[in-house]
Amino acid sequence: MRPIIQAMAESDVKAMARLRLEAFFEGTGRTLEEDTAGLRGLIAGDGFEAAFVARDRGRPIGSCLLVRDEISSPHDLTPWLAGLVVEETHRGSGVGTALVKTIEAHAASAGIGTLHLYTWQARGFYEALGWTAIEAFEQGGEPMLLMSKSLP
Asked: What is the per-residue pLDDT across 61-76, written as a single tens digit (0 to 9) for each?
């Protein structure tokens, strides 16, 4: 499948917020309203930060963000690739790769030299895309990994 990647629209916000809550915020107390408000603020922002969605037959199936600040970051770095999420039924089909490459291209076109991200479980995925592990650490008792990528 070759996904269509586009800037996130208002009509995508609720579906992507639901997917994000399930993937990242289950059991944290973060609400659908909080996540939709955050996404709305991002897409209505100054254009530096960005949200992209992947579509399959017009339906949003995944998203990825470029943000200045990562939630609860123990590192004083910016900017961040954040919130990569793809519906489970579409994982492994190139959707995540297409979203990451879109964020990287957007960042490079904005003159950004280095991007950062946090992951643990997806280390191999990001390394295959040229990202480098910088530091393993714990956050909230959970293992985390800081990664970065220099952009052309």
From this structure: 999 999 999 877 788 9
CA distance 78 to 137: 18
- pTM attached to this predicted model: 0.93
Q: How far apart are CA 50 and CA 64, in angstroms?
A: 8
Half-sphere exposure of 80 (CA within 13 A, CB side): 18
CA distance 99 to 112: 17
Please write down the long-range contacts of 131-138, taking CB distance under 8 Å and 24 or more positions apart. Answer: 135/75, 137/74
- The edge-to-edge listing of strands for the beta sheet with 4-7 is 4-7, 50-56, 59-67, 80-86, 114-119, 142-150, 132-139
Residue recorded with tokens 């650490």? 137
